[in-house]
Amino acid sequence: DLESALGLEDSGVLHDLVVNSATPPNVAAAALLAMEAGKDPRLNETVDVALASGKADLRTTAIRLLSSRPDAAAKFDALLTSGSVADQQAVFDSLGTIDTPAAQQILATWMDKLIAGNVAPPLQLDLLEAAGKSKSDAVKTKVKQYTDGLSKSDPLAAYRESLQGGDPAQGSKIFHERQDVSCLRCHKIGGTGGVVGPDLTGVGSRHDNTYLLESIVNPSSMIAPGFE
């Protein structure tokens, strides 16, 4: 872990790493997780500092660490009202892991917004994934209401929420490392990979997201020249 790797015996050094604005966000996030793993008594205090001033990985990690606190739902509600898209995505990711009446109410309220068409596209998939994990019958009913309302004639209807939002770093990890999808077996990117399918280097600049989604969901619908 970070503490042993850095030879840190004083957990206060981890706290200082988190609160120091000069610490890179990914390093500060790792320090915060090390504090959680070590059950540091200053964790809650440090999470609050990270929420107030942290950026990127640090802020996202702090939001996720809120889920075990009794004030989590209230803080999540505030972040969903005024936080950035990244904040809101992290909140939904966390809401999918906690099962309290307050969390269920937040998900139910946001599912109503989604059904009414009032949720920003970059948040829709995160909300649906969180709601899909809920044990609340009310939330499950709303998820079914939403999915039942999707177009039956649109082959992409069940996947359109994935057209916006997402995490490029996670996408790269899936592409390069996930054996169950084996992207690199057929496709090349940045000079690495197979040649069975088209080279995907720069494909996002040549085609829009809908084209790329259709190529994944229904790869035979539009075949790249030379790969018939």
Short description:
By secondary structure, the chain is an all-alpha fold.
Describe it for me?
The chain is mostly helical and 228 residues long. It is built from 14 helices and 2 strands, in the order H-H-H-H-H-H-H-H-H-H-H-H-E-E-H-H. The chain has helices at 2-5, 12-19, 25-37, 43-53, 56-65, 72-82, 85-95, 101-115, 121-133, 137-148, 168-177, 183-186, 203-206, 209-217, and strands at residues 188-189, 192-193. A two-stranded antiparallel sheet has the order 1-2. Helix 5 packs parallel to helix 7 and helix 6 (72-82) packs antiparallel against helix 7 (85-95). The longest helix has 15 residues, at 101-115. It starts with a helix and ends in an 11-residue tail after the last helix.
Give a quick set of tags describing it.
mainly alpha, flat, 228 residues, 14 helices, two-stranded antiparallel sheet, single chain
How are the elements arranged and paired?
Elements: H1 2-5, H2 12-19, H3 25-37, H4 43-53, H5 56-65, H6 72-82, H7 85-95, H8 101-115, H9 121-133, H10 137-148, H11 168-177, H12 183-186, E1 188-189, E2 192-193, H13 203-206, H14 209-217
Antiparallel strand pairs: 1-2
